[in-house]
Amino acid sequence: MELLQNLGHGLGIALSPTNILLCFAGCMLGTLIGVLPGIGPIATIAILLPLTFGLDPTAALIMLAGIYYGAQYGGSTASILLNIPGESSAVVTAIDGHEMARQGRAGIALGISAIGSFVAGTIATLVIAALAAPLAGIALIFGPAEYFALMLMGLAFAILLARGSVLKAVLMILVGVLLSTVGPDLTTGQLRLTFGATWLADGIEVALLGMGLFGIAEVFRSLEHGEARQVRETQVGRLLPGRAELRASAKPILRGTLLGSILGILPGNGAVLAPYASYTLEKRLADNPRRFGHGAIEGVAGPESANNAGAQTSFIPLLTLGIPPNAVMALMVGAMTIHGIVPGPQIMTKMPDLFWGLIASMWVGNLMLLVINLPAVGLWVKLLKVPYRLMFVGIVIFCCIGVYSINNEPADILIMGALAVFGYGLTKFGFEPAPLTLGFVLGRMMEENLRQALMISRGNPMTFVERPIAAGLILIACAMLTVAILPVIRKGRDEVFSE
Amino acid sequence: MRILNGVIARIVGAGIALSAYDGVASAQVPTYPSDRINMTVAFAAGGFVDTFARIIGQKLNEKWGKAVTVENKAGAGGNTAATIVANAKPDGLTLLVTSTAIAINETLYKKRDYTLDQLVPVAIAVSSPETIATHPSKPSNLKDYLSWAKKDEITFASAGVGSGSHLATEYFMKRLAKQPASHIPFRGGALAVQAALGNQVDLVASSFGIIPQIADGKLKGLAVASEARVAAMPDVPTYTEAGFPFVAESWVAVIAPAKTPPAIVEQLNAAINEIVNEPQTREKLLGMGYQLHSRSAAQVATYLNDEVAKWGEMVRTVGVTVE
Amino acid sequence: MSQFQTFDRWKRAVRSPQNLVSGLILIAAAVFVVFMLDNLAQGTLRAIGPAMVPRWTAIAIGIGGAALVLWGFLEDGDALERWHLRGPVFVLAGIVFFAATIREPGFLVAAPLAMFVTGFGSREVRLRELVAFAVVMTVACAVLFRFALNQPIPMLVLPSLSINF
Question: Do residues B109 and B64 share a domain?
């Protein structure tokens, strides 16, 4: 009852005309800028931050939340339409989402992504409102040993992510892990695999990986075929998902929401796993896993919901513990600081208006996304009518600008080019870049947590067995591996998974 | 409106510039800033250094009617940005915003592409003392804690190798407390604080990032390395009070290329001090646990020199270097 | 003559050239990485050194590569695919031009130049259309990033004419 009262109070604040307008403006601008290739949520928030300077703290936070959701959704739009994922979560969306776009179902993919995000956002908002405080305590059980086990489990997921051979998927994960070790070593500060190049001295940005391996490499592939590839130009198809598609997506959306909500709570950026976990789960549960990677709507609905739910619940560690779980949240802390708010345990009791107003505005923000984006789907899809001979030029230049704006470093643009050639080569040899990306994202965290766990346990590897949660997660990882490898051993897997 | 103001400022500025040629001596450089100011932040968007730059940038823009861009140039522990500003045109339009790292790196890094001589500090107006804290289940004052810990090597978490928190704490343990302690680096202060909240490590070392948790009782503050207690956590004693005279603070510095005209440095110094002391900004910064300092440009230069020596001593004691 | 015969026999023995070649590349990469890590410490379990994770990852990649090579002889698989060079060459050239000119002389030169070069990556390139597109996009991006979003992208930097915009 108290929950409803609080939420009502929050809605009262969030639904004031000014705040609705600000939320709307934030979502709109966030989407418009987030859709530009290479400009992810972090850049979008940093760019739009000055707009909130003049506002009172609550209004500013509401607008920022709008910008954040808008930017997230804008990123998905770019990866569905053009296969340019700007961050690791959008990589998963791109697998089936872009495939759908190529089949002329871009509108449906965009629509289901908006609907799934809204449902996930609604449920996750309720989770935060009801359970923020108790859940925060659970999150603290996770220490380095548990995170290591979780990341290991995530890598086991990645094997199932691939369409083709298990061996090749494992190799791609390992290459991703290896790439993630480039740069300064966290524990000693020594440089690894940088070949003395200053532009490698801080490692490789994940956005470069997304734009190189996917965005530009996709341009290379498309150029092979000339305009003949332009199915999308002639046939755009129905704009919004129909009843059958909604029915097929309902359960994936709910499962994705559940996964995302749980993983988002972990302060060590567990949310990055959410879309991958959801994709794997849907592929496992599907009657015909072969559809995945060829435009399966569940492969968009599930991960998009998981991503949005995770994005939402990652506010929990921020608001209850004062711990920003990822770079976006760290930026939100910065934004709050500018307005004189110190996110932390006291925020809920000391500033109830702000706390409940923010939570209610999360939901309003998600609603805005739906309101803005369902009508906009038609507009986005029209973008695909630009002839490809010009479109790819636009993609390339936006990627260049996007990469440059991350760190104002021209060498980053060259790294993107090199990664693009690498990505093009991968497909020529029958490898897929998606497991590589996950290996890259999880590899660094896995290594760091492994080393921290062993330092804390004073070199005793039994720490991974003695701690029940860590042991449980490792067990699941082993089970996953067995599931993936057994059919190969029995020679049956190729018929199940490969085409 | 802002554009209009800018245009007016430009016209007025041009007028003053012309009149300056009439031989009227002036303490200020009337044409500064003649154009957009670029603040190069040595760290990624989101940390306090970045936030501080954005606050200052916004206020300078309001004050002088010129656009101020904030450019994040993270890399090599802050050295990338320092190198860029060291080689920039000394017209006061390119400024470096960085942290204690600029003092630490003088000793920590074997190789840098700039020297401190190429830079002149403009303002160091906010600081936050290095603080150590522990899980509430452990002894809650420094003396009890040390006698409890004597039994065994303790683990302490910090934001990374060579961070101010790491150096100050390891120096304290090694030199002052003579307590064996093994450092566990995390990627950023937030994750280090999390490890302490979950009682995964014995101790966490951090500066301002730890204040909300201490204020709320989720962590127990053992000591702050400042001259006086911090207003936002009045219950935490200073190291000196706890019997170990030791001061180590992390701060944010605004720095310009060395050859920047002194008048511009003075003008910026005055403006930044004024901004920090505006009642509203002041209140926000104090509420977050920052300490404010109004130092003149000359005082800032002396302070920076002292800090280089002080952190250098800590780096050498801890015995860590970075390539 | 016999050389050709052995070559021919080898060629017939290879049942999946794609796996064979990719396996060999991976082995080479793994050896290279292990070699490059030579100067870094492996550490102990208590204090894992900087080399441990990358080294063992590379070794695992090498073993996997060897398995792929073996696979290439054992099981039928795909042939090597043709690389189409036109697209990648022009796009990469555009990217390199952009990287080389963005700082100086700046975006107003870098963007149209990069777009003009990139455009030739498509066989259907139409010169006049491409030029118009490049100009319009340059202006649009300049307005968007520099003026609407206040991003620090250098627009026109010509030190000799002391233009720094």
Answer: yes
